[in-house]
Amino acid sequence: MTGPILNYWEKRGGLSVFGYPITEQRLETVEDRTIQVQWFERDRLEIQADGTITAGRLGARALELQGRRWENQPRQDPLAPDTGGCHYFEATGQVLCEPWLGYWVNNGGLERFGYPISSLRLEMIEGKPYTVQYFERRRIEHHPEYAGTPYEYLYGLLGREVLTVQNLPVCQGPPRDVQFGLEDRIGYVEFRSALQCPSSSYANVPAAFQQFSGGVMIWLDLGEAGRKIYVLRYPRQGMDSYTYAVYDDTYQEGDPPIDEKPPEVPPRSPIQPSVPQRGFGKVWAAGEREYLGYAIFREQPEQANIQFFGVGGMALRLLFSGQIGIFGPEYNQAQFWPS
Question: What residue spans carry the region label Disordered (predicted)?
């Protein structure tokens, strides 16, 4: 770092506020302006045409890249005049309450954070749930493990996150957001980069789920798009990711059952292997047996909320169990989070 950006970085909090630099100072086009910028772990500092230094609008950009533009978020109701400890921002329709409001005021307010552009929400960050709130320029995270220390409230690593995915193509057509809260999972960089733009979505789809020793099967009835069976295989030795396949469900009432006996286990064993039937059984017997092994639980009826993406990927949430699956455009781009 050199020059005015170094001076700004040092005078306004340095490492604890901005993190380490992750690029050199360079020319970039930002919101139709070509300016000098430098990226940091938590921020992007910009030299404007008049020479002033400002922080980039990374909070707004992060929500956009996650498929949930702040302009499309529900506006909260204005506060009653006697509401204490909270402030309503007409510009964005969001409420900021204590202790977040005090933190915002005492650490730079509008200049550093911009307006709040989301309500408080739970998000998974590095595998753990945290309460966060987005602002135009930042994301504030509450870390209760540091309660009572200066690190209880932290700035999110938006510089690192946005820089990783900023060159994704702009979504075409009318603005769409990721539906059903699935952005909590697909906001992860590896899936956001692969899935790109959200497209069609389905609510309350008839579904079924069955767990196997080596993976899971999920059946979905997509109406005119047909009945599909997703097979998600757990990572094997020497592999570092899930893999998956998608099959048409060709089962018809009256098809013969899968006539095979599962291996015998002690009567008191907590897991009693079984042979899948119907559509799951046909896919299993046709080749997935090798990967999945035997079923370890019965097939369970489900309902699912589904979000498809323009490049061919899909995310779903099983409503009864709360489980979430991600299926990218490539067979080895998949993940599954049990409830």
Answer: 253-272
What's the whole-model pTM score?
0.67
Cα gap 164→259, rounded to integer Å: 51
Let me know whether 190 and 331 are in one domain: yes
Residue 47: domain span = 1-56
**Residue 240, both tokens:** 């570092």
Give me the half-sphere count of Cα atoms (radius 13 Å) on the Cβ side of residue 101: 11
Which amino acid is it at 306?
I
Q: How far is CA 5 from CA 1, 2, 25, 96, 229, in A?
A: 7, 6, 9, 30, 54
DSSP 127-158: TEEEEEEEBSS-EEEE-GGGTTSTTSEEE--H
The reply to whether 215 and 310 lie within a common domain is yes
Mean pLDDT across the stretch 225-251? 90
Structure tokens of 18?
């901005």
| DSSP of 241-254 | S-EEEEEE----TT
| Range of weakest confidence among 96-110, 181-195, 213-227, 325-339 | 181-195
Query: Do 214 and 326 belong together in one domain?
Result: yes
Whether 171 is covered by a domain: the verdict is no
Q: How many domains does the chain have?
A: 3
Cα–Cα nearest to 104, from 120, 83, 82, 81: 120
